[in-house]
Amino acid sequence: MIKGIGIDMVELSRIEKIIINKSSFIKRVLTDKEYAIFQNLPHKRQVEFLAGRFACKEAFSKAWGTGIGNVGLQDVEILKEDSGAPTVTKSPHDGKVFVSISHTDTFAVAQIILETP
Protein backbone atom coordinates (compact mmCIF):
# COMPACT_ATOMS: atom_id res chain seq x y z
CA MET A 1 0.00 0.00 0.00
CA ILE A 2 1.24 3.52 -0.79
CA LYS A 3 1.95 5.61 2.29
CA GLY A 4 2.86 8.80 0.46
CA ILE A 5 3.93 10.46 -2.76
CA GLY A 6 6.16 13.51 -2.98
CA ILE A 7 7.55 15.58 -5.83
CA ASP A 8 9.90 18.54 -5.92
CA MET A 9 11.52 20.66 -8.62
CA VAL A 10 14.65 22.82 -8.27
CA GLU A 11 16.13 25.47 -10.56
CA LEU A 12 19.68 24.58 -11.53
CA SER A 13 20.72 28.26 -11.65
CA ARG A 14 19.72 28.63 -7.98
CA ILE A 15 21.81 25.61 -7.01
CA GLU A 16 24.78 26.84 -9.05
CA LYS A 17 24.72 30.17 -7.18
CA ILE A 18 24.57 28.30 -3.87
CA ILE A 19 27.57 26.13 -4.82
CA ILE A 20 29.57 29.27 -5.67
CA ASN A 21 28.43 31.51 -2.79
CA LYS A 22 27.39 29.19 0.07
CA SER A 23 29.52 26.06 -0.09
CA SER A 24 28.46 25.12 3.47
CA PHE A 25 25.00 24.32 2.02
CA ILE A 26 26.49 21.39 0.11
CA LYS A 27 27.52 19.55 3.30
CA ARG A 28 24.15 20.33 4.92
CA VAL A 29 22.36 18.60 2.03
CA LEU A 30 24.68 15.73 1.12
CA THR A 31 25.63 12.78 3.31
CA ASP A 32 29.31 11.81 3.42
CA LYS A 33 28.80 9.15 0.73
CA GLU A 34 26.88 11.56 -1.52
CA TYR A 35 29.54 14.23 -0.98
CA ALA A 36 32.31 11.82 -2.01
CA ILE A 37 30.52 11.30 -5.35
CA PHE A 38 29.83 15.04 -5.73
CA GLN A 39 33.52 15.95 -5.32
CA ASN A 40 34.55 13.77 -8.29
CA LEU A 41 32.09 15.30 -10.75
CA PRO A 42 32.70 18.13 -13.22
CA HIS A 43 31.00 21.42 -12.29
CA LYS A 44 27.91 21.00 -14.52
CA ARG A 45 27.27 17.52 -13.11
CA GLN A 46 27.85 18.81 -9.55
CA VAL A 47 25.03 21.30 -10.07
CA GLU A 48 22.71 18.59 -11.45
CA PHE A 49 23.71 16.12 -8.71
CA LEU A 50 23.15 18.54 -5.83
CA ALA A 51 19.88 19.80 -7.32
CA GLY A 52 18.65 16.25 -7.84
CA ARG A 53 19.57 15.13 -4.31
CA PHE A 54 18.01 18.24 -2.76
CA ALA A 55 14.82 17.70 -4.79
CA CYS A 56 14.74 14.03 -3.69
CA LYS A 57 15.06 14.93 -0.04
CA GLU A 58 12.34 17.58 -0.32
CA ALA A 59 10.11 15.08 -2.18
CA PHE A 60 10.77 12.47 0.52
CA SER A 61 9.73 14.89 3.27
CA LYS A 62 6.51 15.61 1.38
CA ALA A 63 5.78 11.91 0.91
CA TRP A 64 6.58 11.35 4.60
CA GLY A 65 3.96 14.00 5.37
CA THR A 66 6.08 16.29 7.51
CA GLY A 67 8.20 18.51 5.29
CA ILE A 68 11.88 19.24 5.93
CA GLY A 69 12.48 19.80 9.61
CA ASN A 70 10.95 16.64 11.01
CA VAL A 71 12.94 14.73 8.39
CA GLY A 72 16.42 16.20 8.09
CA LEU A 73 18.39 16.42 4.88
CA GLN A 74 20.99 14.06 6.37
CA ASP A 75 18.27 11.50 7.23
CA VAL A 76 17.83 10.58 3.56
CA GLU A 77 20.60 9.29 1.31
CA ILE A 78 20.33 8.68 -2.44
CA LEU A 79 23.08 6.69 -4.12
CA LYS A 80 23.13 4.67 -7.38
CA GLU A 81 22.48 1.05 -8.17
CA ASP A 82 24.95 -0.77 -10.45
CA SER A 83 22.62 0.07 -13.34
CA GLY A 84 22.98 3.79 -12.58
CA ALA A 85 19.41 4.16 -11.30
CA PRO A 86 19.05 6.25 -8.14
CA THR A 87 18.15 4.37 -4.98
CA VAL A 88 17.36 5.54 -1.45
CA THR A 89 19.91 3.82 0.79
CA LYS A 90 19.00 5.55 4.05
CA SER A 91 15.73 6.99 5.35
CA PRO A 92 13.40 6.84 8.37
CA HIS A 93 10.86 4.85 6.30
CA ASP A 94 10.80 1.11 7.02
CA GLY A 95 9.10 0.10 3.76
CA LYS A 96 10.04 0.31 0.09
CA VAL A 97 11.07 3.68 -1.33
CA PHE A 98 10.78 4.37 -5.05
CA VAL A 99 12.72 7.32 -6.47
CA SER A 100 13.01 8.99 -9.84
CA ILE A 101 15.21 11.97 -10.74
CA SER A 102 15.24 13.89 -14.02
CA HIS A 103 17.05 16.98 -15.34
CA THR A 104 16.58 19.51 -18.09
CA ASP A 105 18.95 22.35 -18.91
CA THR A 106 17.24 24.49 -16.27
CA PHE A 107 15.53 22.21 -13.72
CA ALA A 108 15.95 19.03 -11.68
CA VAL A 109 12.83 17.18 -10.59
CA ALA A 110 12.46 14.23 -8.24
CA GLN A 111 9.57 12.02 -7.23
CA ILE A 112 9.38 9.69 -4.23
CA ILE A 113 6.80 7.01 -3.52
CA LEU A 114 6.73 5.38 -0.09
CA GLU A 115 5.22 1.92 0.17
CA THR A 116 4.30 0.33 3.49
CA PRO A 117 5.41 -3.26 4.20
> What's the number of structural domains?
1
- The Rg value, from CA coordinates, equals 13 Å
Find the CATH topology. Answer: Ribosomal Protein L22, Chain A
First-residue to last-residue Cα separation: 8 Å
Question: Beta-strand level of the residues, as a percent range?
Answer: 25-35%
Instruction: Bin the helical content.
Output: 25-40%
Overall geometry comes to globular
Quick one: CATH class?
Alpha Beta
**Number of strand elements:** 5
Instruction: Return the string of H and E elements.
Output: EHHHHEEEE
Q: How many H/I helical runs?
A: 4
CATH superfamily: 4'-phosphopantetheinyl transferase domain
Helix/strand-derived category reads: alpha+beta
CATH architecture title: Alpha-Beta Complex
For the largest beta-sheet, the strand count, sense and barrel status come to:
3 strands, antiparallel
Rounded average pLDDT:
94
Low-confidence stretches: none
Largest sheet strand order: 1-5-4
GO molecular function: holo-[acyl-carrier-protein] synthase activity; magnesium ion binding
Subcellular location: Cytoplasm
Catalytic activity: apo-[ACP] + CoA = holo-[ACP] + adenosine 3',5'-bisphosphate + H(+)
InterPro entries: 4-PPantetheinyl_Trfase_dom, 4-PPantetheinyl_Trfase_dom_sf, ACPS, Ppantetheine-prot_Trfase_dom
